[in-house]
Amino acid sequence: MAEKPVVESFQLDHTKVKAPYVRLIDEEEGPKGDVISNYDLRLVQPNEHAIPTAGLHTIEHTIAVLLRERIPGYIDCSPFGCRTGFHLLAWGRHSTEDVAKALKESLEFIASEATWEDVPGTEITSCGNYRDHSLFSAKQWCRDIVDAGISSDPFERKVV
Ligand SMILES: [Zn+2]
User: Fold this and answer.
1) Are the beta carbons of 19 and 83 closer than 8 angstroms?
2) Does 77 belong to an annotated binding site?
3) Annotated binding-site residue? 49
4) For residue range 15-38, what is the model confidence (pLDDT) as tens digits?
5) DSSP for 90-132?
6) CATH code of 123's domain
7) Can you give the residue range of the structural domain that contains 103?
8) Does the pTM of the predicted model rise above 0.90?
């Protein structure tokens, strides 16, 4: 039998990181040379905090638009099951500083300006669990994350 694939994210020592941070997980090259980058957007400290589902869900819907506007080649941003952050996928290469700045702007917008008008897909027809949203929770968590500062390095605090 072939060897089991190694999943990079499970190799990371989650006790050594200092959230909030942006980390490049890896860059993969397709058969035609296109590059896809995968980032770890860690919003809260692993095994110390977890963003409650409703707030995380609202952040997910809202940053789907905000990060798309700010990161060229944006593909997708999906929450971790542990509720401490998101995977970000994008075409091409981007510095973690640029990604951290885009994330900071997006979370700052949610914390200070966002209204329900800015949260897309909250109807029964456009979401798989439309009852489970909280802009109140999203705003408070985003405020705390922005105030803590987002680092472009997972192990050393390099706040953008
Ligand atoms: Zn949804």
Assistant:
1) no
2) no
3) no
4) 999 999 999 999 999 999 999 999
5) EES---HHHHHHHHHHHHHHHHHT--GGGS---STTT-TTTT-
6) 3.30.1360.80
7) 16-148
8) yes
